[in-house]
Design brief:
It contains 13 helices and 11 strands. By secondary structure, it is of the alpha/beta class.
Length: 360
């Protein structure tokens, strides 16, 4: 694992030129309505795993277990589906529809996805009368495409990488009059991704009610940065500056870390990582802006380190993927950087078990 102390902590990036305008949401404004209308809308578990903490040489480990969120197997259930529900609710409040369940008839939502974001969109759209089109790259397993089709979504294979499928989703959305709903943000495209991140704030609200003691450290996995930004915001809102926030990315896709080093948003090309959900070469601009101001440490972990942590968690009956375990992998290998992280036997860590196993 390699780490970088954030030089912009408390200040933010020095060069805002080229960054998308706007900020991340501060509260999930439509959360109660959304959760009430969702299958299995209750809070997910916060696990107290002192046994694993002991193995890691720390005092306590709390795991937010998102593997069964709304039956979709991932925290991403709170993203696209929430953003769609928020749009449906607004249409009813504006007097342009009577029934949320039919308020978005005639609308098609489109996104690119390497996994769970697409499933959230595909599941959420029909709840409000809408259709879904999900664009996936050639590397996405066909089993996942089948699962998407079973929701009624149209699945389009496009390109060799996530970035290729995103470009095609954007092109076809514009050509067909569809609503593009990405889980990232960039200049000219901020509202949708902001709503997706707003949904992720629900996790932080739940944790604040569940955790018995403040954590000293929060380890957050990141792809484009949506989960990391939302959960970092929740941590700061609840515990202030007393908590150390560590953002972990694959070393093959260090989009956030590279941007922090450059002082501006950059692309970070690299090989394909086994952390497929996190294998994103470009950061979400709103997420980057917030994390540049609030995250203490940016870390990169190798595929080997992630795989080692997945195997270890399996021994404790916590089945997940390399992406789902990436934040925990950073914690697992933090000992080599104990001084920089202020890390030791008194550490109380909070991590997110963000998705279940591929065959779960």
């Amino acid at each position: 694992m390699d780490i970088l102390k954030n030089p912009w902590l408390g200040e933010g990036l020095p060069d805002p030129e080229g960054l998308a305008e706007g900020t991340i949401s501060e509260t999930p404004v439509a959360a109660e309505t959304f959760l009430a209308g969702s299958p299995d809308g209750g809070p997910t578990l916060l696990l107290d795993r002192r046994d694993i903490a002991q193995a890691f040489g720390i005092g306590a480990l709390y795991l937010k277990d998102e593997r069964n969120r709304m039956g979709l197997g991932s925290f991403k259930a709170l993203g696209a589906a929430y953003a769609i529900a928020k749009r449906a609710g607004q249409k009813v409040r504006d007097g342009n529809a009577d029934d949320p369940g039919t308020s978005l008839e005639g609308v098609t939502f489109a996104c690119a996805s390497a996994g769970n974001h697409g499933l959230s969109l595909a599941t959420g759209a029909p709840l409000y009368g809408a259709k879904a089109a999900v664009f996936v790259s050639e590397t996405v397993p066909e089993a996942f495409a089948v699962r998407l089709r079973q929701t009624g979504a149209t699945v389009v294979r496009a390109g060799a990488t996530y970035e290729d499928s995103m470009a095609e989703a954007e092109r076809q959305a514009e050509a067909n009059g569809w609503v593009l709903l990405p889980d990232s943000t960039w200049p000219g495209m901020t509202g949708a991704g902001r709503d997706v991140m707003e949904g992720y704030l629900i996790m932080g609200t739940e944790i604040s009610r569940q955790i018995p003691e403040p954590p000293t450290h929060v380890f957050l996995q990141a792809g484009v940065g949506g989960l990391a930004a939302a959960c970092a915001f929740s941590a700061r809102a609840t515990w202030g500056r007393d908590v150390t926030i560590v953002v972990a990315e694959p070393d093959f896709a260090p989009a956030l870390k590279a941007s922090i080093q450059a002082g501006k948003a950059v692309t970070a090309p690299g090989p394909v990582s086994i952390m497929g959900r996190l294998d994103c070469k470009e950061p979400s601009h709103l997420a980057l802006k917030y994390l540049a101001r609030e995250a203490d440490i940016f870390a990169t972990i190798s595929d080997e380190e992630a795989a080692e942590t997945v195997a270890l968690l399996a021994e404790y009956d916590l089945a997940t993927t390399a992406s789902g375990a990436a934040g925990i992998a950073a914690l697992h290998h933090a000992g080599a950087h104990a001084r920089a992280l202020n890390f030791g036997p008194e550490t109380r860590a909070l991590c997110y078990l963000s998705e279940g196993p591929e065959d779960g």
